[in-house]
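lol ok so funny story. i was supposed to be doing the assay writeup but got distracted and ended up predicting the structure for this chain instead. priorities right. anyway since i did it might as well share w the group, maybe its usefull for someone
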Amino acid sequence: MTIPAFYPIGTPGRPWGEAEVATWRSRQAVQRSYEADVLGRVDALRARLDVSEYGRLDVPPDSYPLFAIRSRSWRDELPCVLVTGGVHGYETSGVHGALQFVERHAASYDGRANLVVVPCVSPWAYERVHRWNAAALDPNRSFRRDSPVPESAALMRLVAPFRDRVLVHVDLHETTDSDESEFRPALAARDGAAYEPGEVPDGFYLVDDSEHPQPAFQQAIIAAVAKVTHIAPADAKGEIIGSPMVAPGVIEYALTRLGLCASITDAPYKTTTEVYPDSPRATPEQCNAAQATAVCSAIDFALAHHAGTPAAR
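and the output, tada:
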């Protein structure tokens, strides 16, 4: 059933224009610091990893440097691993899980893979704990040629020189209660559509690529993460967030058609993680650990199963 939902901006049934977007943006207050939470930790990594500024996000009066962390022992013959977090700025463990992976586990892949980690793709949204960027656009529906979203465009430019050499890409996300209380109602209001309520799954799950599925890869990640936090069950319809559950804790999306971040390379192994931080059964520490564990298990599987990598020889 479709239920009209009140949203305090705009006219029901009419998409937002510039005035509504400006009103929405004026109500987005800074709630945390990108500089304190992210940049300080990135800076501390410079002693053992290469840190480079790959772009700058200007949202006057604010300006945010965008950083990528790379293996210092980069070798052209090694496969590349891409880890992205904070495409949706409000998804906290995506950012901090990426940083935890680098801090605690990156060294174990020296000489085995070239790592590229982008811990916070959307710093403006990170500070405001929001899904959208400053123009009320979703970066994770905007990874396509001539993207109107600067956060997405900057990441694609970074990846372009090595996109064909990426073996595995793990994009770190969360599904939260605020998806239903704020973000999906806001989306319906922005687009002049009726809000159709959904069900937030309790637990961790993965999104595979429906065009190029890798079920064994996804299940290896699920098995590893299940030791850290609980895996989301299907709902009464056998679905997770409206998509059929194709295996325990796994659904599939058409990544390229939807313009999702996990589509930006031709990696044979790709996945999008979804952690549920609002569960009474999970702590913030578990959520961060689940993200880091997902990255490690994804890399380990890919290196072990892909012909030509050091681990497979």
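The mean pLDDT is 95. The two ends are 54 Å apart (CA to CA).
back to the writeup now i swear
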